[in-house]
Amino acid sequence: MHDNHHDSTDEPTEPTAVTTDARKRRSRPDGGDGSGAGGADGAGGSGGDGSDGGGGNGSGGDDGDDGDDGNGDGDDSMRPGDMMLAHPTKETWVQYAVISLGAWLVATAPAFGYESAPVFWNSVVSGLVLIALAGATIYYENGYANYANGFVGLWLVFAPIAFSAPTAAAYANSGLVGTMVITFSVLIVMRSEMDGPTVPPGWSYNPSTGAQRAPLIALGVFGFFASWYMAAFQLGYIESVWDPIYGSGTEQILTSRISEAFPVSDAGLGAVAYSIEALMGFMGDRRRWRTMPWMVAFFGVVVIPLGFVQVLLVIMQPIMVGTWCTLCLLSAFGMLWMIALTVDEVVAMGQYVVRLMRRGDSLWTAFWMGGTIPEEEAGVDETSTRPIGDSPVSEPFWGVSIPWTLLGAMALGAWLMLSPTVFGTTGLMADSSHLAGALIVSFTVIATGEPARAVRFLNVPLAGWLIAAPWLLAGVPTIAAINAAVAGLLVAILSVPRGPITDRYGGWERYATLETIDRLNPLSS
């Protein structure tokens, strides 16, 4: 609500969720209950343009800057981080759901016959902690207690793996309750729409829409169930694992020395990671690239570097164990597409954090609290440049394009992975083809994400190795040597052209394409 002075002028009075000027941010998590008095320009106290939702009884000065300490208009004047702390205290019904889940854990511990004292007491203690923290959220209106329950939920997802739960009931019960706790204490209370623009400055689309996240969630759910199934075998709940292509290959990998070197089930760890990725895909609204930088950053870490480590472990299977695993390959291939689909949102978040820091915020404040931008600085709304009728099909894949050159490189990488079987190659040459082919597929899939298009250049040294390997390794059949050399040459040629960049990324294009190199590259288009 604006005061009379502002209503009588021609100055724009469009409300902004939060100022981007760090000097004017003084909001409290509770939005302020004081009653400030407006100054000469009406920006103080109860909500002129200078009000930032702060608490106390401040009174505005001549230019309204002191309105930061006046009466805040609730959540409309809070920074996103403050709003997320306030939400749990306003939606108390979710706390009663968490209390019910805590009671369920306590009650089912003796009923399910867990056959393990650590698993039994973990269920009881975790249930009591959930009840206590949910009660603190209701009684003391403490948002931190609510989010602490989110960490309890995360622990419940991991606990059956940590304790090697002896029964499937213990595994399923703890994992399901943990997921529901995270849903109630984190996802639901963070679902509220924030104010302000949705498209990052200089971008042609919003990388945080629900449609953009849908394939990430779907791939995460698939990876979770695949890993959960394999973990059930490792933990002894089932006696065999179905593999339609490699027969007993999956079982050999799950019982190999590499898998047994982990202190807990490695497939179970994968299930935990995939569940986190899927749940984080649901977190926040379509503005989360600027309202939740911390969450987008953590999501990026789980998907990009940690996801690629998982891919590398799968790539090493034929070298370390001597066989492949169908479910592992499918999960790894899905993870590569998750990386390609995630890069754009991480880039948008990073650009926004840098923007806030240039305007005076500390890295800590910008990272944890987020903010907004003026409407006039936002990027072009996607609905004004995209056919609305195409959105359900095309929107999930904005920011990803597959030029025929990358598609060809991907096919050659897959062929190299199969070639040792086709030509009967063994030893180091077979390992070379497996490793180089899988890495070429990996780098090429990631490069389909336009903000990561420069990753394609990593294929060039791999191609050089493929050409040189037959001369450096002993006992290579002639046909295998010719195959490797020709494939390497073609991969190098196909990896040089950039391919079309169909969207705008706020200036990131010059990094995504290595613009300086592309200027000198006659094959770039």
Automatic annotation (TrEMBL):
Skewed-composition ranges (Acidic residues): 62-75
- Record GO terms (molecular function): oxidoreductase activity; quinone binding
Keyword Lyase belongs to the record: no
Location within or outside the cell? Membrane
Per its UniProt record, what Gene3D superfamilies does this chain match? VKOR domain
Could you tell me which Pfam families the record lists for this protein?
SPW, VKOR
The record describes its membrane topology as:
Multi-pass membrane protein
Gly residues bias locations? 32-61
TM region(s), chain numbering: 93-113, 119-140, 147-165, 171-190, 216-238, 294-315, 321-343, 428-447, 479-496
Vitamin K epoxide reductase domain span:
215-342
Q: Per the database record, which ranges form the SPW repeat-containing integral membrane domain?
A: 93-185, 409-495
The similarity annotation says: Belongs to the VKOR family.
Quote the protein name from its UniProt record: Vitamin K epoxide reductase
What is the species of this protein? Answer: Halopiger xanaduensis (strain DSM 18323 / JCM 14033 / SH-6)
**Species lineage:** Archaea, Methanobacteriati, Methanobacteriota, Stenosarchaea group, Halobacteria
